[in-house]
Specification:
Four copies of one chain form a homotetramer. In chain A, helix 7 packs across helix 9 and helix 9 runs antiparallel to helix 10. Chain A is mainly α and 263 residues long. The first copy, chain A, starts with 8 loop residues before the first strand and ends with a strand. The model of chain A has no long low-confidence stretch (mean pLDDT 93). Chains A and B meet through strand 1, strand 2, strand 3, helix 1 and helix 2 of A and strand 1, strand 2, strand 3, helix 1 and helix 2 of B.
Chain lengths: 263, 263, 263, 263
C-alpha cells in the first residue's frame, strides 16, 4: 500500500502523445486511429478491460450481455435520473447519480457472485466435470444457508423470474462461450432449488453477468462495469424523456407519507 | 411545467411486465428477448435514443464515435476515478463522480455546438449548398468573435490538434453519413481559420460528436451521452488499475501548493 | 482563463504544515487549534467563506438561516438518500447524490435571486431609500414578466406559503442585520403581489437565503452553500432512518407507471 | 428486509403540514418556527440525529468537533471540488462529488473505530474502570495485529501527528464530556504504542470523531456525518476560490505520467 503523490501516475491503459510531429493516442498498444472505424464498442470495451481483442464469438456474447443490461423501465436508477431532470439538474450529474446509486443490494451482487465462483473453482479449468461442479455447488448452498444468507445472483424482487438471464445464456451457448462458470451457475441454480424443496430461484441479470463475464475471461472485479456502462444509456434516455415532459418538482405526496412520533 | 407526484410516471422507453404468465421487458416496442443476441450495443443505444433501429452504415459510424470517445489517458475524469480507488471508495461512486465531472468547459461543448448548428441550419436539409453553409458559418464566426467567445467544438488544451476528429469523419464519409452537419462543421473549421489569418483551430472530439450525431439523426440534447457512456469504460479501467497499484492516499505534495496570505 | 497543471495549486484558505517541529493547520490566518473550542460551526463557516470572523449578531442570523435550511421532510433530496440506503449504497454516496440533486429549479434559485439583487443594487449602499428600492423592484417585476419568467425566490410548490422565510427575517431584524438586500426582497414581494392584482407569492427559503446572506456580507456565489451544508444533515438522518427500516428495493409499483406507445 | 414501494414512506424526522390554515414544519416534535433564531446549527444537527436537544456542554463539544473537521487544505476532496470548478461543473455537483469521495480508507475509519468500540465495550457504562479498558484495549491491539490490520482511528499519512485530535479532546474534558469512549480511545493509543515498542501512532481526526461522538450519545452509524457536513464547507470554499482563479483544465502534465507497456 503506497501513499502516492498526484504528480506521479503510472498506467498501461493509454498513452497520449502530443509533440511537434506526433498527435497520437495509443490504447492498450494500439493506435486509436486504427481502432476507430474498425472496432465495435463492445470490442473496444473488451480491449480496455482485458488488454486483448475479442474473437467474433466473444464479441457477440458481450454485446448480448450489454444489450440485456441497458434498460429496465422506471427502475430506481432511472428514477433518480428523472428526478434530477425534474429539478433542473444537469444530464451528467443525473447519469452520475444514477450510476452511483448501485450498491450492495442493487447491481453489486454480480461482483459478489463472480468473486465467490472464482474462489470456489480455484484449481479447476473448463474441463471440470459436472459432478465436481455439483459437489461444489451443493457446498456453496449449504454454506450460505448456514450463514442465513442468499446466494447472490438468483431471484429478483417484483418478478417471478428474470427474463434476461436465459436468453443471454442461450447466446453464450450458441457462440461456444458457455464454459465452466456458466455451467457452474446453472448447476448452482439447480442446487438452490433442491435445497428449497424444488422451488426455483431463477438466475437474474447479476448472476448471468457474473458467469458470462468470467467465461469471457474478465476479472471478477470488472463485472459491475457491464451494468454501469450499459445502464448509463437508460439514465440518459429517461432524463431526456422526463425533461421533455417538463415536470418541475417530482415529490412524494403528503398522503403517501406516514409521520410517526419521535420516540 | 408540471409539478408531478412520484406516484405517477409515464414512459415510452420500456414496459416491464410481470404477471402470472408473462415475464417480459419491452423496449421501444421490441421484446428485449428478441434484441439480446441480435443487436450490438451501439444498435441498442441508437434504438434507446431514437426509437428506431439504425442501418448498418449508421451503426458503423456510431461505433466509430463511441470508440473514439472511450479513453483519453490520465485525464481529469479518469483521475477522479483513480483518486476514488485510492481512498477506498466504491467503483460505482468512482464512475459516477467521473461522469458528473463533465461540465460546461469539459465534455459539454459538443452539446452547445450541436444546439447552435441546429438553430443556424433551421429550414435547411441535406441538400443545402456549400455556399449557403459558408455564409452561415462566416456569420457564426463573426457572432462569436463579437461576443469575445470561442466557437464550441474546436481546439483542445494540451494538443496541437485532436487526432480523433479527422478519423471519425473519415468513417462518416466512408459510410455515407457525412451530411449537412458534418459539412457545416468542416466549413466552420475553415471559417475559423480564415478569421485567424490562417491559423487553424482543428475540430475536437466534442465537435465531431456534435456533427456526426446530428447527421445520424440524434437530437442535440443527446450529444453528451456518447461521451458519458463511452468514457464510463475508461473510468472503470483506471479505477481497477489504480486499485491494483494499491495506492492509498493520492494527494498533492506540500511543495506543489502555494499558500497565499488571506486578503 | 488558464490551463493549469495539477502540480500547481494556490490557496489562501488553509495552510497545512507538517515538518519535524511543527504540526499546524492554519485557516484564513488563524491557527486551527485556537479555533477549536472557541468558534461555533456557524462562525467557522463564516470565516471560511468571508475570511473574517462574524459578530455575535451575524452569527445568530447565520445560525437561523442554517437551522431553517436543515430539513424539509420526505423531499426530493432526502428521498434520493433514502433510495440509496434501500439499495445498499454507502452513506457518503447517498449524501453526495442528495446534494448534487440540487439544480436550477430546486435549490438554485437563491443564487439567481442573489445575483440579480447585486446587479440591480449596484451603486447603492444600506442608506438607499425605500422609494428607490421600490422603483428598482417594480422594474425587476416588469422585466421578468416581459420575459415570461418568474422572479426567483418567491413561491413554493405544494405550499401556500413557505413558513421558513418570515421567521428567519424576524431574526435578521432582531439582530440588526436587516439591511438593503432584505429590505429589497420584502419590497419585491410587494411589487410581485401588486403585479398580480394583490395575489401574493410569498418569499421562500431560496429567497430568504439570498437576501439574508447578502446582508451578512456573503458573495452571491456562496448562497447555495447554506442549503447544501445544512441539508446534508437531513440526508444523513433520512439515510439512517431508512436503513433502520431495512427496506431493500424502493421502487415504483407497476400500477403507477403509464406506458405510452413509442411514437 | 422489506421491498417497499416509493408510494409509502414513513418517518419520524419531520412532518410538513400545508393545508388551508396551517403551514408548519415539525422537526423531531418541535415547530421549526420555534427553533429558528433559538438553536445554533450544532444544536439542530444534534436534534436531527439524536431526537433530543443537547446541553450547552454537549453543544460546545459538537461545535469543536465540527470546527476541527471543516478544512484540511488542498486535500483530496477539496481537489476534486476544485477540478470540477476548473471544468465548468456546477457547485452542487462539486460538493456532492467531494463528499462521495470519502471511502473506506479516507473518512470512513471513524465509523469503523466507533463500531469496534461499541462492540468491545458492550455491557460497560461510564463507570468502567481504567484497568478494564486497558485489558480490552490490549486485546483489540492483539486482534488487529493478528489479522495484520491497523486499528482504525490512529495515524495519518503525510503528518507526524494529527494536530486536531488532542485539542478536541481537551474541549471534551473541559466540558465534562470525556467519558468511556474517549477514555478507551486514549488507552488504545497507549496500547498501540506499547505494541510498537514505544513508537506512537497518535489518534487522528477519524479517531477523535468516533470517541467524542459516542460519548455525546450518537449512534456509531452517524459518525461520518460530522466530517461530511463540516467538510462540505471546505469543498464550497475551494470550488469558489478555484473558480475565481479562472483555471480551465486542471490536468496531469505528460511528464508526470509513466506509460508502462501493456502486459
Amino acid at each position: 500500500m503506497a501513499t502516492r503523490s498526484m504528480s506521479r501516475w503510472e498506467t498501461s491503459i493509454a498513452e497520449v502523445v502530443s509533440d511537434g510531429d506526433r498527435e497520437e493516442i495509443i490504447i492498450r498498444g494500439h493506435q486509436l486511429d486504427d481502432l476507430i472505424g474498425k472496432l465495435s464498442f463492445a470490442e473496444m470495451m473488451f480491449l480496455m478491460l482485458q488488454s486483448r481483442l475479442p474473437t467474433a464469438a466473444e464479441t457477440h456474447v458481450l454485446d448480448a450481455l450489454l444489450v440485456a443490461s441497458v434498460e429496465h423501465g422506471i427502475a430506481p436508477p432511472s428514477m433518480v435520473a428523472r428526478c434530477y431532470a425534474s429539478y433542473g439538474t444537469s444530464l451528467p450529474a443525473a447519469v452520475g447519480a444514477g450510476i452511483s446509486a448501485f450498491g450492495d443490494k442493487m447491481g453489486g451482487l454480480g461482483e459478489q457472485m463472480g468473486r465467490m465462483m472464482v474462489e470456489r473453482l480455484v484449481g479447476h479449468n473448463d474441463d471440470v466435470a459436472d459432478d465436481d461442479l455439483q459437489t461444489i455447488a451443493a457446498q456453496v448452498v449449504t454454506d450460505y444457508r448456514r450463514n442465513n444468507e442468499r446466494v447472490p445472483g438468483y431471484g429478483i424482487p417484483l418478478h417471478n423470474k428474470d427474463p434476461r438471464a436465459p436468453r443471454t445464456l442461450e447466446v453464450a451457448i450458441r457462440e461456444g462461450c458457455f464454459k465452466r462458470y456458466c455451467r457452474f451457475a446453472m448447476i448452482l441454480e439447480q442446487e438452490i432449488a433442491i435445497a428449497r424443496d424444488g422451488r426455483a430461484v431463477p438466475m437474474n441479470l447479476d448472476g448471468v453477468s457474473a458467469c458470462v463475464a468470467l467465461d469471457l475471461g474478465f476479472d471478477w472485479r470488472t463485472i459491475r462495469m457491464f451494468l454501469l456502462t450499459a445502464r448509463s444509456v437508460s439514465m440518459g434516455a429517461h432524463y431526456l424523456e422526463e425533461q421533455a415532459q417538463d415536470t418541475t418538482w417530482r415529490h412524494a405526496k403528503a398522503d403517501t407519507i406516514l409521520y410517526s412520533e419521535p420516540t
